[in-house]
Design a protein that fits this description.
heterodimer; A: eleven-stranded parallel β-sheet; 7 helices; elongated; B: 406 residues; Cytochrome Bc1 Complex, Chain D, domain 2; two-stranded antiparallel sheet
Chain lengths: 503, 406
Amino acid sequence: MKNLNTLAVALAAATFAVGWYVGSSDETLTITSSKGGKSYSGGYVTEQSTSAKSEGAVKLRTTEGEIHVINPGDSIQTAVELAQPGDTIQVMPGIYSETVYIDKDDIHLLGVIKEGERATLDGLGKLNDAILYSGNNIIIENFKIIDYKGNGIMSQAGNNFEIRNNVIVDTGIYGIFPQLGKNGLIEHNVVSGIADAAIYVGMSDNIHVAYNEVFDSVAGIEIENSRHAIVEHNNTHHNTGGILAFITPGLPVKDTYDVIIRNNFILNNNTPNFGAPGSTVAGIPAGTGILIMAADDVVVEGNIISNHKTAGILITDHGNAANLTLDPESDPNADGAMILDNVMLNNGYDTIDEVKAFALTELHTGNIDIFQIGPTEGSCIINRHRYKTVGIGDFTDCDFTNTDDIENYLIAGGAEPRVIAPSERGEIAYLGVCTGCHAYAGRLIGPSVQEIQALYANRPEALVSYINAPTPMRSDYPEMPAQNYLDAETQLAVANYILQVGN
Amino acid sequence: MGKALFYKRQYSAKISVSTLICAALFIASSAFAKEGDIQIQLADTCPPSFSLGTDNRCSLRHMYQLYDSLQDSGIGGLKTALPKARDGFSPQQIDLGRLLFFDPILSADNSVSCATCHNPKQGFSDAMGRSVGINGQIQTRSAPTLWNSAFLSSFFWDARAESLEEQAVGPLFSPAEMGNTPKQLLMSLKNTDTYVGLFKQAFPEQKAPISIGNIATALTAFQSSLISLNSRYDQYAHGYHDALNDDEIAGLNVFRSFVARCSQCHTPPLFTNQQIAVIGTPEPEGLPRDIGAEKTFKSKVLRGGFKVPTLRNIAQTAPYMHSGRFETLREAAEFYTGGRGHAVPEGEVLLLHWHISEPDLTNDELDRLVDFMKTLSDESLVPSTPAQLPSGLSFKHMENNHNEKS
């Protein structure tokens, strides 16, 4: 945060006067009880329709598929290859050194714990990632994951996931990293020794991070370019920064808003920053309890935040952060920060020079619980007199005192996949795949659709069989590639579509 | 399926020449000659992958429409929706765009066409590190592929245009590229009877359809029909895991791992997240640093920044990077494991992208990455080259196979 210096100087004259004003208004205290008051209404309206009450993010199975039991010496990946959606893979205790990737939906990958002994994925310091997945409705639980170079558990675009009860030690950049997914639960994991974030939620929606212990990492829990996230009941200690909510500029999803950080233990996060040069977390000052950068509508409530040398809560815009790229599409300001009651002890006792310099512009010396810099709108706080604060002169008194009305932001029963009518599915597959080789009339590469219609009239199943395993029918035509990559539903839809399509 | 087959397309314009003699005469004539002899009927059906609506507009259909994406961002993993595509043009507009695209009448001296630098036989690029405009002028950057440009929201390496239309007029009137002027371009088209007829077909309700706006519309219509979404990778993505072999899947896993981090910017399904990234590749020997997006956004922090290019059909568009410094995919991949900033000259200040790290990829991993990138090839919907050009000029892209690299 080297830029803090420059801005501090630039703003010095202006804030000097404000500082005096705020200073003199300290005499009147507004004491607000956080019990029984109005609750925060939240930024996410649940589409309440389903009566199927779900405990987690993945819909409960009504029928169980096959259970594949994996023993040491077996390959977990081989089981994943065999598994069908709906199946469960049970991994018995022992050491497994492999990268497991799941490009399927509805797979439960469960480690078995026997008398404390876990199914352990060991990257031997050589393998990149332990578990990668792209499917929806994935559950990963009870593993121990050690010594990978990339990530412990990573997804790109899986919706409805539960990552639970895993012990993750020194797996490189991120311990748990869901990205570009919707509706996920990350709970009861113990993650440590991670060079970036122990738990990193990137570009995701409707996320719940709870009851995790994260320590000895650069960032404990990070909510980045994401919306509707709750981080609660976690114990984050001995990291460089405890819990982060921010916007990284230059990513394709541009905002972070509606984040609730509540009831966490955020303790002693003073570990020297060992993030990779150039990484966003490399700019976190050691000794930061909570960092809010450019994120909007972040509620901080009920946390115990203690023993952080830089600040208990650090709120900044992009302008005051170092080494960020320019992104005209990202709003650089942290608006709508909402600080409810928190227990804050011994923070900001040995802060960085940039923070000190800005504090001085408000004639503040000594410890700092809450530090805010940069333009902010709509931010509020209750019981501000309890804390040592810098830069919150613009904060109003919040008109609510708790978040009791919001249990979580998960989508009960899971985010549903896109519903496609069979006729639409048939048209998409026909135009998206078949028309590359088949014109309605006349030969393109393969025979015309009219010829196909004549050959298979009223026999869509026969057409499905053919496209699954084509056999040469015409010597002067190139062989048709099998279309067996289309699922059965799509195959039948496209067969029906072809047989009735007009020009 | 042989590649040659793809050049025999059904939807292309039907050209009839009244007599062979006339045709021969006019091929030899200049762009300003009157040539009423060519009768071209523009296509009345959409290209493959498009659905013709009752309003005579072509709407794109593709398999990724079966999926969603987070915040409709069009990025994600395997079964993820693409960004919204430009479509809705008429078959006639698309076909007119195709004829214009191949016709050197668009350049000041009839020496280059769009296809000169965006040759369909070379991945809609030109196998050159830096393309060549009129009078042999060497450009500062390479020609980006046009495949899947329907899905893009910014254009040119430095993201200075926000629409295909805005992009199209750039090279037309750039003195270094096609060197034309609006006045001369309009005049040469208006003086070509065939084009007068073609613009009437493509824009039937307009009194004076030959306009710069309509030229841009037709070129946009054609470019947005260049769809490549049926590669072997796509088959894998839709759920057919046998589409890729073990080496290619291993490559996919390196590609998306957080060690190599390729997929963080080259994000599926388009294999670009369409952002600006400063990665610090070297310029060709002796050339100054190209400041890239610094100019577009007037910001030093974007110095040397370029738009993340799609990797679809990447195997067809060597050499690589904005000025073609790397001859092969292997070299391009290797750049990323050379160390953060290893190719940035002393004294050059670049704010390198945070994903430019020190992945220490093994030789085997680099080979697998190349294996994987080659699975992103699909040219099944390459449009046909017109049998003959409305201007009567000869093609200027077939001979442009210089510097072809293995």
